[in-house]
Amino acid sequence: MSLPPVHQEASEGRDPERLDLDEPLRLTAVVHGAVQGVGFRWWTASRAEELGLQGSAVNNTDGTVGVIAEGPRHAVRDLLRALHSGGTPGAVMKVDSHYGPATGEFTGFATG
């Protein structure tokens, strides 16, 4: 198995020693596996609220759960780690995720 090439330009100009862990960030994730009908959205919302995040966790028609979470970089990162942890309800097979700038569109954390 070969890994994709590393794109250095993505980190250009960023000093890892000065990374702002409180910088507002948005996580968008799609969680694959047996994650519907097992309390996964409720569990995700509980973790997000404990971390002070806003956003949502919703069932998608293809059996996945979509998660959007916004808040401080360190808290968003902790939620993503929790989604990968193996301690979730159901069985998470894969989490597709990416980060972007926070939009501030959410108040609280909703499940739907």
SS strand fraction: 25-35%
Sheet with the most strands: spatial strand order: 4-1-3-2-5
Report the helical percentage.
Answer: 10-25%
Radius of gyration: 15 Å
Query: What summary fits the major beta sheet?
Result: 5 strands, mixed
Mean pLDDT: 87
Quickly give the structural class. alpha+beta
Global shape = globular
Question: Helix count?
Answer: 2
Number of strands: 5
Q: What letter string, H or E per element, gives the SSE order?
A: EHEEHEE
Distance between the termini: 38 Å
Stretches where pLDDT is under 50 for at least 5 consecutive residues are: 1-10
Q: Mind explaining what this structure looks like?
A:
- This protein has 112 residues and is of the alpha+beta class.
- The protein has helices spanning 40-50, 73-84; strands at residues 24-34, 54-59, 65-72, 91-101, 109-111.
- The longest helix has 12 residues, at 73-84.
- The chain is globular and about 40 Å long.
- The model is unreliable at 1-10 (pLDDT under 50).
Q: What key attributes describe this structure?
A:
112 residues; alpha+beta; 2 helices; 35% strand; globular; disordered N terminus
